[in-house]
Design brief:
Blueprint (H helix, E strand, L loop, with lengths): L2 H25 L9 E7 L2 E5 L4 E2 L2 E2 L4 E4 L2 E8 L6 E3 L6 E4 L4 E4 L5 E4 L5 E2 L5 E2 L6 E2 L8 E6 L4 E6 L6 E5 L2 E3 L7 E4 L2 E3 L8 E3 L8 E4 L1 E3 L5 H33 L4
Antiparallel strand pairs: 1-6, 2-5, 3-4, 7-22, 8-21, 9-10, 9-13, 10-19, 11-12, 14-15, 15-16, 17-20, 18-19
Helix pairs in contact: 1-2
Length: 261
Amino acid sequence: MIRALWTASTGMKAQQVNMDVIANNLANVNSSGFKKSRPDFQDILYQTKRAPGTGMEGGQSTTGVQIGLGSRVAAVQKVFTTGDFQQTENELDLAIEGPGFFQVSMPDGTDAFTRSGAMKKDINGRLVTSDGYPIVPEVVIPEGATSVSVGSDGTVEVVLDGESTPTQVGNIELVRFGNPSGLSSLGRSLYAETPTTGAPLAGTPGEEGFGTLSQGFLEGSNVNIMEEMVNMIAGQRAYEVNSKAIKTADEMLSMTNQLVR
């Protein structure tokens, strides 16, 4: 059996994953705080016909003979570059300028992390995500608050009805990781800690290693549509050329079957 049939098929499989990643990036171009993914490819096993340095008549083989057996997707990595900021003028919309994540409490008691700052108030006045998960540490906006102000350092102040002096009601903290690319995607713009991320480090916005907060803004996705379209074209052509390699190998087998002695 011609080896090229199986080798080219691995290239088609790898490009299929590539197209799946590109499609997900494009589907989330308008998702607040979304971070695009990038597949990393690598070659796989080699069949060694003759190892480099093998003795030959009159000398040694300087390069040897090794035949590759295709490619695979080694990893799909999240790219945590900052997305474009969009002004919303909503006092509960927050954008992180620089590194860091909001920490939120999940219903099962675990913590998750997000870059999406589209905050809301729940029935108890707590600041929560669009899915109702409260931020950590908890910040409660009291009843009767006529305005909410969030400083670049995460200080939350409100002006109560009938008063003119702001009252501080809490502080928003950020969390960062030594290896954010190791975070596990949970969907809904949420990420979970994994053994490869390192322990989460909490801190005040604006401190060394942490970004600052901007009230009235949201961070958009970091997906570049033109870049994804170019990647899509390149992936399509790579898929096509691998399919042609399979077709050519099949034609060679057909010619062999038709040989007449």
